Amino acid sequence: MIxxxxxxxxxxxxxxxxxxxxxxxDSGATAQRPACVLDAQRTFYETMNANPLRGLYSLSVxxxxxxxxxxxxxxxxxxxVDDRGRALARDVVFTRNASESLNIVAKCFAPCVLExxxxxxxxxxxxxxxxxxxxxxxxxxxxxxxxxxxxxxGTLTDEEIAAKIGPRTKIVSAAHVSNVLGVENPIRKLxxxxxxxxxxxxxxxxxxxxxxxxxxxxxxxxxLAFSGHKALGPMGIGVLWGRHELLEMMPPMLTGxxxxxxxxxQDAVWAPVPEKFEAGxxxxxxxxxxxxxxxxxxxxxxYDAVREREEALIAYAMERLATLxxxxxxxxxxxxxxxxxxxxxxxxxxxxDVASILDMSGVCVRAGHHCAQPLLTWLRVENLACxxxxxxxxxxxxxxxxxxxxxxxVWSTFHGDN
Amino acid sequence: MGNLYTxxxxxxxxxxxxxxxxxxxxxxxxxxxxxxxxxxxxxxxRVEDGVIEEASFTGHGCxxxxxxxxxxxxxxxxxxxxxxxRLSNLFLAMIRGEELSEEDIEVLDEAAQLKDISHxxxxxxxxxxxxRTLDGILVPEQDA
Lengths: 418, 144
Prior knowledge:
The structure holds two protein chains of two kinds. In chain A, helix 3 crosses helix 10 (284-301), helix 4 runs parallel beside helix 5 (132-141) and helix 12 (351-360) crosses helix 14. In chain A, strand 3 (119-123), helix 5 and strand 4 (144-148) form a beta-alpha-beta unit. Chain A contains 14 helices and 15 strands. In chain A, strands 2-8-7-6-5-3-4 form a seven-stranded mixed sheet, with helices on both faces. Chain A has a four-stranded antiparallel sheet with strand order 11-12-15-14, covered by helices on one side. Helices cover 39% and strands 16% of the residues of chain A. Chain A has two domains: 10-25 and 302-415, Alpha-Beta Complex (Aspartate Aminotransferase, domain 1); 40-298, 3-Layer(aba) Sandwich (Aspartate Aminotransferase, domain 2). Chain A is of the alpha/beta class. Chain B is α+β, with helices and mostly antiparallel strands. Chain B contains six helices and three strands, in the order H-H-E-E-E-H-H-H-H. In chain B, a hairpin with a 4-residue loop joins strand 1 and strand 2 (39-48). Chain B is globular. Chain B starts with a helix and ends with a helix. Classes of the chains: A alpha/beta, B alpha+beta. Chains A and B meet through helix 12 of A and helix 1 and helix 6 of B.
């Protein structure tokens, strides 16, 4: 049995260590960073700072190698390896965030395959970053955007998949884990269904990479996007992985420096993948620090420990929330199906008031539409808003206790003490 | 802003608003929405000879938006259009973080309690909703 009362990780996180008065329950928006990540950022500038790719001197070569090592690390992390287990690092593109990664797929890949009358299918639980780009892509191509709707507990059924993915479906794009419901979607099933129609599967792994091992081969996906900052890395680094032949056929989204092989007065030849998609100077220090973050997540802590601890924290939180009759959980009732995220509302009290009053007790939760307005509309959630507590392994039982106690204060603020 | 939630008088405006009702014969009516919060508000006024004889609102939203609307309705009742606009400008300036004079704070009366909202950018729109809706009625009225 995991001991969630003790916390062997908090000391690694300078902000959490310096602010024992807060319960940080907004890791789904952005994680806290361990000291090793902040140190890595500094180390880059202190020991290897030069513009990668351009230089012919050894410092620049070193900066380039530092980035390429992280590329390979990420490829291995997401299972992008060849039959002999070697990292397919060249298929990992660095972007600014998951939104940009998904935009590249929707703006550069979708026009290569979408024809008028085709369909793109996404789930109603998508974050706006995996929704608006597909609205735009469909509009541009004369295609139709189709939605998969889950059961009320968040389950996407086989029947729904069969009903929505058909001969017209060219692209399916789905969150691996929902940022509101916390459920894991059946990506493999979606991939098999769309592949059977000759289409492609895109997954938004922004909410899964921080919590669980992700394997692009096991999931059967064609593109995968995530951001570093939700996985303990610095803000400003996103990742797009794609199957090599698809990345090859796509035009770049941005053009300019460092993404060309040759340029003439009227024309340019693109650099190979991935540089083709990485116009301009990259945030090399951020990429280097992202590597440190992923090493900390997967080696220092390890996904097994992350999962075990987060499951225990979620189970404890759900158990205590169940004792508050005025709290309504949005998403599945089973704790085990919440991957880091518990969305909820307090009966009759606007989520923004709830969040503001929780803040008075140092409890940091998010409240609002969570960049998922179509989902909240479909769920008929009052005010189209809810609160969300999102956890990470660096939380402990005292964070949950503080959260539950503060919810009691929310209720008594509006209803008196009894 | 924590003080607002612990202020009994402020919370009374949310839980027992005196001015939240549908008016019989309004001379003016205007809707205000705050898409990011889902707050919706309809403001009604009965203006006679340039004086706001009656003000009321309906709708739903967070405690900040509701209490702010009730406080505003109370404050502008009996005021001329010009004075109500002046009060609204003062309030919106305060919410934007501008320093008000002692006299201005005094005329804003209970509405001055919302000053702390200026430190909470995410809640500014909630506090402003009723007042912006009021401007939506009064500004064209004054220009007419």
